[in-house]
Amino acid sequence: xxxxxxxxxxxxxxxxxxxxxxxxxxxxxxxxxxxxxxxxxxxxxxxxxxxxxxxxxxxxxxxxxxxxxxxxxxxxxxx
Length: 79
Prior knowledge:
Blueprint: H1 3-15, H2 17-20, H3 22-49, H4 54-61, H5 68-78
């Protein structure tokens, strides 16, 4: 499954328990945050070593170009 499709699927599945089972939804949110940080750290270090241009990183992150370097730095500092 493509990563974007997978994330859309996860989002759709997790929207359901938000009202009915908020603790389940909070647990899932925490797991997604930790997973996102872990993936972001590895990707940020790889992007740095590959000298990925800020514009490309910004597009991948869905951010303005000016915001990409600080987001990548934040991921690297999380390590």
